[in-house]
Write a structure and sequence with these properties.
It is found in: Mitochondrion; Nucleus. The chain contains 34 helices and 30 strands. By secondary structure, the protein is an alpha/beta fold. The strands form eight sheets. It has an eight-stranded mixed beta sheet, with helices on both faces. Helix 2 packs antiparallel against helix 4, helix 9 packs across helix 20 and helix 23 packs parallel to helix 29. The longest helix is centred in the first third of the chain and has 24 residues.
């Protein structure tokens, strides 16, 4: 028995049993070759085997089973030939005899309806032996296509430490064939292109071609994709003879790019040997790979690229892919240089940039942005996608033909970080798709010090991409030509299908996690191997020189040329006197800050006619036969009545803010889980026809012909990924209100990484402003520990104002505070204040994130309504809302001044009225908690000189705003030289955010309300 090649002997057994026959079904599946078992069980088993697909040619593998079941119920329901076959097969007729050619097939015509090589056809029909042999060959072809990547030579080190299960060789794989069969000619199925123009090939040549295509330096993983056009496209790109050949000019270009990649790292290593730089050594081919993706995509029309990547190779990418001036990169190594502008800056391998340049290969101008990101691996992925989606949106690039994303990943992070999965699941959602991302995995085959066999349960680090049917191209990074070809295919895939694709660059890390790390501690065998491994440049240059593609002198001159560029940049960098953080902006807003008065505090009120028009539109059902739900009709009617009465609840105030901005040309995007309706069924910005699927109506998109678009979109059930996406969206255009709403505020902590690393600190680290707004439903209403607190205390703890410093008084007190703070944290108690704070996000001459605690019960509380008068021209957001009742009229008689924020105000007011203490207790609401309104709190305290000062909150003492306001109110008291105590009223400290017992909740509420109204 002859064993066919190294790889074939490792393939799992896919031998076709003797109980199979073939028939060309004449039906809607005409042309499909359908294998059928001798009985129902055998047939159903075979229909699901991978070996069956070559014969189905696009038919459903379930079709035969369905036909068999139909025949069992009614034999006349199938074609006569199938009826005959099923009768004879179930009666036990031997294989090959159960099939009877249908009328019309001439004697000697193959039932396969394809000509066989001469000498293989018996008199009258094709023998069962011929059929079995062809089925076996087609199964072998299919096996290579399905699992050939498992046996590809992908590891440059030859160690292959992945967890791919490479089965032991089945000794009976080729039972059909002997050595003499290698020269037999077999008909090629329609599911392969290895023959080119040839329809038949000897078995020996079939095996060799399959080995060369699927088991050398490229592993093509694609047959999990459930789209035959796409899988056929990939087959064609890899199986067509000669398609992967590169010309000599392309080879010289690869060498030149490899020289730049390697010599840049060597230059930095010489100059700063003890500095961390997270170099690219071991995967130098990444630079020519990325440049090839950009070149190819530019040819397909893309002119803007947004890149997200981790530390490794970042400086090299900035230098040799983005072409950022080398001196700007080099001066980052000089720790003595101070920043010449705002911001604390960040380590050099976290910085972003944006650069426009000429692509010399395509002679087209392109823009490349690398998004700044923290050490939190993969956190940048959704941010990049949001940024790309925004640019596509504002450019009208509805198919993603002009703007695209490239995401780089490490192998351990790609498999281990859940945000990768969340980001992939945004890839095909209508309001989130970027029409295809090219993912490049720099597969070090190790995560920091962790062996991949201990780091993941999946065979490949890239398996997460299978969930969205993204093809995965594994490639040996020491074969630059294979890498470049794969990059070309990936770019064409993205341009053709508008879907994600993954390039898995299997490489190694020549040094440790960073240049001063010692990898031998934990990976001695790998690093002994690496120490003897020649560089990819050395190997490739020798190959080209030996083949006469380049000369030794040409190679050396190219090296000298780039070395000279680096040295000249080093001299220029020494002349730098300061570092400008603004040089590293990944989202420059050209012209936004020009002509604006940075110290002007805007008003945000609008005309009553505008309020009335918006209110009328959002309370009127669409015209025509659009059927609105009966319950919604009542809600719309109630809205119309409020408009008539010149009042607004929370939902209507939102509409007024959004609608007025839309009419001013400001795009509004509201994104999150169930935001179209609103978790608490208050918003209803998208009306659904009750009888026609997918027929919807968005009133706010029908205000006026010249308005900006309103995007309101339910997201996937993700916080981390979606908030990152919407943050990225907000970075692209400052003249847009971008809002992410949590289903409950508690769930925001699932996105804490985006909040901490990007939203809170982004401007300080990366000089990157964002006006993103977070809606976080917050309030203790007896709904348990996971539906009460949006963790207000966490946002306040991250606020950057000084609790011990009372800012300088003056006309610009408020705006100066807003300039200096990192974000705004608000907990509004009136619809009018929500209206103003949302409009203020756009009216300000700069951008800061807004963290807004939003209500639940207040959405429908009759007392929580605002008059139109509070939203008219001349009105604005109130940082503090003072008491305006009897207590305010006789301030000196007030015995207790209570400060609070949010919903608890209404509960305290109700208790005060019940106990008839309206003249004795004053209640002031702090609506903007950060930056803290020192000036207004001072005025309130000074107004009530004889009052005890209290802070009341519904949160537990170790939560909520208490820890934030307490030192700041004491600073105010110190400023006033009033030696008063500050009393806390609220729940006791707790590890859990709230009780899960409704009765206990009410008891706690009654207890602290009773304490609040003691005078």
């Amino acid at each position: 028995m002859y064993r066919l090649g190294r790889t074939l002997l490792k393939l799992p057994r896919l031998r076709v049993t003797k109980s199979l026959a073939i028939h060309k079904q004449k039906s809607s599946h005409a042309g499909s070759l359908i294998p059928v078992g001798r009985d129902g069980k055998a047939m159903r088993t075979f229909a699901t085997q991978a070996a069956a697909e070559p014969f189905l040619n696009g038919s459903s593998s379930v079709y035969v089973e369905e036909m068999y079941l139909a025949w069992q119920k009614n034999p006349s329901s199938v074609h006569k030939s199938w009826d005959t076959f099923f009768r004879q097969a179930t009666a036990g007729v031997p294989p090959g005899l159960a099939y009877t050619p249908p009328p019309g097939l001439k004697s000697g015509t193959s039932a396969l309806a394809v000509p066989f090589p001469s000498g293989l056809v018996e008199t009258g029909t094709v023998s069962s032996k011929v059929i079995e042999d062809h089925l076996a060959v087609q199964s072998i072809i299919r096996s290579y296509q399905v699992i050939g990547h498992r046996f590809a030579d992908l590891d440059p080190l030859g160690m292959d430490k992945s967890s791919v299960d490479k089965y032991e060789t089945p000794k009976n794989l080729m039972l059909h064939f002997e050595e003499k069969d290698l020269d037999r000619v077999f008909r090629l199925p329609a599911t392969t292109y290895i023959g080119g123009n040839e329809t038949s090939l000897p078995l020996r040549e079939i095996i060799k071609k399959l080995e060369d295509i699927y088991c050398r330096h490229i592993g093509v993983e694609f047959l999990f994709i459930n789209n035959m056009d796409q899988t056929d496209w990939i087959r064609k790109k890899f199986e067509t003879p000669g398609i992967m050949q590169l010309d000599n000019e392309e080879k010289r270009l690869i060498m030149a790019r490899l020289i730049r990649s390697q010599r840049f790292e060597e230059f930095l290593a010489r100059k700063w040997s003890s500095e961390k730089r997270f170099g690219l050594e071991g995967c130098e081919v990444l630079i020519p790979a990325m440049k090839t993706v950009i070149d190819a995509s530019t040819n397909y029309g893309v002119d803007s690229f947004v890149i997200g990547m981790p530390h490794r190779g970042r400086l090299n990418v900035l230098a040799n892919v983005c072409r950022k001036p080398l001196e700007k990169i080099i001066c980052q190594f000089d720790s003595k240089l101070e920043a010449a502008d705002e911001g604390s800056g960040d380590v050099k391998y976290h910085l972003g940039m944006s650069h426009e340049r000429l692509n010399r290969i395509t002679n087209k101008n392109i823009k490349i942005a690398v998004v700044a990101n923290p050490s939190h691996l993969e956190a940048v992925d959704p941010v990049v996608q949001g940024k790309v989606r925004a640019e596509q949106f504002y450019r009208g690039d509805s198919e993603g033909k002009k703007v695209m994303s490239i995401l780089l990943h490490g192998d351990a992070a790609f498999a281990g970080q859940g945000v990768v999965y969340e980001t992939f699941h945004l890839s095909d959602l209508p309001a989130y798709t970027t029409h295809g991302t090219i993912h490049i995995v720099v597969n070090n085959q190790i995560g920091f010090t962790t062996d991949p066999r201990m780091a993941r349960s999946s065979p490949y680090c890239t398996d997460v991409a299978r969930v969205v049917n993204a093809p995965i191209f594994h490639v040996n990074s020491d074969d630059p030509e294979a890498v470049i070809y794969v990059c070309k295919v990936a770019a064409e895939w993205r341009a053709t299908f508008g879907k994600d694709v993954v390039i898995d660059l299997v490489c190694y890390r020549r040094f440790g996690h960073n240049e001063i790390d010692e990898p031998m501690f934990t990976q001695p065998l790998m690093y002994k191997k690496i120490s003897k491994q020649p560089t990819v440049l050395a190997k490739y240059a020798n190959k080209l020189i030996s083949a006469g593609v380049v000369k030794q002198q040409e190679y050396e001159e190219e090296i000298s040329k780039y070395d000279k560029i680096c040295e000249e940049a080093y001299i220029l960098a020494k002349k730098e006197t300061a570092v400008r953080n603004s040089d590293w902006l990944d989202s420059p807003w050209s012209g936004f800050f020009e002509g604006r008065d940075p110290m002007k505090m805007p008003t945000t009120g609008i005309k009553e006619d505008t309020l009335h028009a918006i209110g009328l539109k959002v309370s009127t059902p669409p015209e025509g036969d659009f059927k609105v739900h009966g319950g919604l009709k009542r809600i719309l009617k109630a809205r119309a009545e409020m408009v008539e009465n010149r009042m607004a609840d929370w939902a209507l105030a939102e509409c007024f803010a959004f609608g007025s901005l839309l009419q001013e040309g400001i795009h509004v995007r509201l994104s999150g889980q169930d935001v179209e309706r609103g978790t608490f069924s208050h918003r209803h910005h998208v009306l659904h026809d009750q009888e026609v699927d997918k027929r919807t109506y968005i009133p706010l998109n029908h205000l006026s012909p010249s308005q900006a678009p309103y995007t309101v979109c339910n997201s996937s059930l993700s916080e981390y990924g979606v908030l990152g996406f919407d943050l990225g969206f907000s970075l692209t255009n400052p003249n847009a209100l971008v809002i992410w709403e949590a289903q409950f505020g508690d769930f925001g902590n699932t996105a804490q990484c985006i909040i901490d690393q990007f939203i809170c600190s982004g401007q300080t680290k990366w000089v990157r402003q964002s006006g993103i707004t977070l809606f976080l439903p917050h309030g203790y209403e007896g709904m348990g520990p996971e539906h009460s607190s949006a963790r207000l205390e966490r946002f306040l703890q991250l606020s950057s104002d000084d609790p011990d410093y009372f800012p300088l008084d003056g006309p610009n007190f408020e705006i100066q505070q807003m300039h200096e703070i990192n974000w705004f944290v608000c907990n509004c108690s009136t619809p009018a204040n929500v209206f103003h704070v949302l409009r203020r996000q756009i009216a300000l001459p700069f951008r800061k994130p807004l963290i807004l605690m939003t209500p639940k019960s207040l959405l429908r509380l009759p007392e929580a309504r605002s008059s139109f008068d509070e939203m008219l021209p001349g009105t604005q957001f109130h940082r503090v809302i003072p008491d305006t009742g009897p207590a305010s009229d006789n301030a000196e008689a007030v015995k207790k001044l209570i400060f609070c924020t949010g919903k608890v105000y209404y509960e305290v007011v109700k208790e005060r009225e019940v106990k008839n203490l309206n003249s004795s207790i004053a209640i002031s609401r702090i609506e903007q908690i950060s930056p803290f309104p020192f000036d207004l709190v001072r005025d309130e305290i000074a107004k009530y000189p004889n009052a005890k000062i209290c802070w009341i909150q519904e949160e537990h003492k170790n939560m909520g705003a208490w820890s934030h306001v307490e030192p700041r109110i004491r600073t105010v008291l110190k400023k006033l030289e009033m030696p008063k105590e500050l009393e806390y009223i609220g729940r006791f400290p707790s590890a859990s955010a709230a009780t899960g017992n409704k009765r206990m909740h009410l008891m706690e509420l009654a207890s602290f309300l009773n304490e609040a109204t003691k005078v």
